[in-house]
Each structure stands twice: as C-alpha cells, then as structure tokens.
Amino acid sequence: MTRHAATFTPAGLTRRERRELQRSLTAARQEPAAPRTRRKDRALPEAAVPGPFGPGLLQGGYWNLVRPVLPPHQATSQHIAGIYPFVADSGLGHRGPILGVDLNADALWHFSPWEAYVDSSERGTLSTNILVLGAYRSGKSATVKTLVTRSIAFGHQVVVPSDPKGEWVRVAEAVPGGRVIRLGGGTGARLNPLDRGPRRTGTSDEQHEQMVKQRRIGTLIAVIEMALAGRLTAVEHAAVIDALDRCITRTGDRPTLRGVYDELGEIATDTTAAFHAADGAIQPRFVLRRFVEGDLAGLFEDESTVRFDQDAPIVVTDTSELFARGDLAAQLTQVCSTAWIQAVISDRASHRTRYVVREEGWRDMTSLASLQMFQQWLKLSRHYGISNIVILHKMGDLDAVGDARSLERSLAYSIVGDIENKFIFRINQQEQTPLRERLNLSATHVEMARQLRKGEFLAYVGQYSYLVHCFATSTPWERDLFDTDDAMTTPDDDIADLRTLDARQIEDLWPEPDYPQTDLEGWLSAPASELEREA
User: Residues annotated as region Disordered (predicted)?
Assistant: First the structure.
C-alpha cells in the first residue's frame, strides 16, 4: 500500500527552525511500513469441523458469521429506573449494633445514636434522641427492646424510669445483672424525687447549688400543677419555693415531699406572713397531702430506700401496680420516678452512655412545668451522654396535653417535632394529616407507613430515611422474650394440648341412625322404630 505525505512550511521561520522541520520529515519517511497481512489472516478462525455453523453443534462452542440483531429494551420510566446501577443506598455503615435489614439496599442496617452523632459526614445527625411512633401491634416495643438489648454489648446502659405495663421486667430479669425497682404492691420501696443527685463535673459550688435548686423546684411545680390541672398563681408559687427552702434548711439539705408538706402547713397557719403567703400555701398543701396520706403514700414522700445501680446493664422501675389507680396517679408516678432517675444519672464523671426509654411518653408532658423539664432534658441529653427514646402510639396522644391552641399543646408538638431521629411504624388512617402537618413527612412516606407490616418502620436519621425490617434479624430468644401478646394466646393454640380421637370415641359422640332403606323415600322418611318412639 502506497503512502502519500504532504508538507507545509510556514513563512517566517528561521534557518535553524527550517532545518529541524526537514529532519523531522526525513525521519518520518524512513519509518518501516507496517507488515502486510492477508485477508485470510484478518478473517474469523477456521471451523474445527466443516460446515457453515462452526464447531458449536458438536462441541458447544457455537459461533455464527451472521451478526445478531437484538431489539432495544423498551419499558416505562418507572420500570426502567429499577435497572439503574446506583439505586442501592449505602446505609449508615457498620458501626453500632444490627437493628434489622435495610429493605431498599438489601443489607444489614446498623444503628447507634452516638455513632450517628459523631459522624461528621452527611449521614450524621445533630441529636441522640429518638421518637418512636406507631399503632398498636406494629412492633414498636419489640424493636426498641431489640435495639437497647443489643446495645448492651457495646457498653451502653438501659434505663426505664417507669414501666407501666411490666413488660420490661422480663427483659431486665433475663439480662445477667439486670436490676428491677418495684414500686407499690407492698414492696416498701420509696423514691425521693427531691434527691440531690451527683455533682456535674467541672462546675463551681455556686453553679452546682443553683442547678440542684432549679431541678427540685421544677419537680415540685410539675407535680403540683399536674394534680391541679392548671397553673399556680404567683402567691402559690412563692409559697412552694419558701416551703422548699425551709425544708432544706431544717433537714440539712435532705428535703422530701413530706417535709415540704409540713412546711406548707406552717406557712398556712402563719397569718402574719406578708403578701398573703398563708393563702398561697393552702392549695399546694392539699395536693401534696395525696403523697403523704393519700393513694400515693409510701412511695415518694420520704427519703429513698433503694439505690440506682450504676453498674447494672439495665435498670427498670416497675410501676405497673400503680397505674391501676387511675390516670392521674399514673402521670404523677411517672413524673416522680423520672425525676428521681434523672437526678441520679446526671453525672458526666461516670462516662456512661445510657438509653432512657420513656414508655407512654406523653405522660411526661401533661403540664407546662413538666413540659419545660422534659424539654430541658432533651436538650441536655448530649451533655450527659443520654439517648431519650420517646414512645407514642399516635400524634393524637398529645391532644391530652392542655387545651386546644394552648401553650402547653403547642410546646408538646414542638418538642416531639424537634426530635431529629424518628422511627415511624404502621399508622392508622386518621394519622395521615397529623404526620404531614406536625412531623413534615411527605405524602409518599405517609402512604407507605399505612402499609407497613409488623416490625417494619421508616427510620429518619439526620437528613436521610431508610426502610428497615427489624424482625428479619430477630433470634428465637428475642422473639419469645419481647413478645407482648402472650396473654392473647388461647389454649387451643397450644399444639401440645391437642389429642386425637379414635373411631369408637367419635361414634359415641356423634351416633349415626341406622336407615335400612337406601332409596330416596327411605332417606327422607325416618325408620318405623323412631316413629313409634315419638308416638
């Protein structure tokens, strides 16, 4: 094959530049030409056996000289998105315990609120608190129990300030070293919600005293306002603080509800006190009388008789005996037990990370004082290394907080909406609008939440969402321990109680009459013996 070359010499070149250009052209002409090949060498290899179809028919190596014609794939845009190569999500990584299977990525889903908080990537979150919301029998409790029990192996402690159903008692008793604090039922255990608690690390004496005083005042005001179903007046508020200060002085910084009750009685009888303090002490004293002499006596009015075990992997306060006394008693019990727990675990020097599981979380938010205390603890969770797990059945639970358009209800919805990490389980139809308005969920996710199966939930961690199935990784030990429907099992469901009957027993139970005639008239007419017996 002949090669042709054309050269072009720009004008304005120097003599030296023209010489270098000429050398380059000469070197290019002297390059050896590519070796010539035959058409036979460029063609397909010869067939191993003669024939137009090659060796495929005999040896399995079929090749065809004819180019195949493959039609392009046709599908809708919705279906074609399924073959996009990067549709699987990367997830949260492998830090923390396994909580389930990510159904979108078909991979194990690991979750730890502390690991997500320290994650500096776009997958990180700004809070360690978790909101768990879903209808009955959607798998909320079992999922929370799975998360916290598996987290024990990672060094986290589990604290349940109030167990109204007694279902966490089984978990605490099954975990080696678990501790159960039982209230009521003749146990004699008492918790003092006004305990001083440990000292926060790095604070001065003045700062520590101020923090302890504010916590005690907040607990007292929350209990009294909850029982009154309203807010204290300025005079009543001043009387309560005055009684608390007197009790602290008289008891050597070991105040109790009984001591505050007695001091309120002293103030009420002092008619010479300024600013009508005697009138302001009457109403709060009647409220505290319920703890000293009423249906809640023997639980919270004196000094604590039990101690919080810092080394126990799980600590559960069993309040199931008290929740049968009425809804108000249940709310007061939960506030007092939660205040005691928070007072003893607010110690950064212990370097413990804890889950605080708030069953029936709306009971902690039934008054303005309790709401403010609840909001403060959610904000201080990162400071104390705590992850608050707030469990609600529906957003409508918060309608029991205050009146419509009240400050209390608005604050309750604001607190729940500010919790960044959310686990949304199956919801009822009437919950669609509250989820879109209060939690700002998309319509697609709300519709998906209505169709979730038991144990499946939508997990919102930071700016990302995941579809997780928890029970796909549950062990038989966990399923038996976390099951809360054992009371609904009927005796017929137990296969061990089933027995078979032989033919003779069946004949005794269901005897068949003897009809000698087999025609149609014989089957329709009773035997003569039976007709005579009836006559």
Answer: 1-50, 510-535
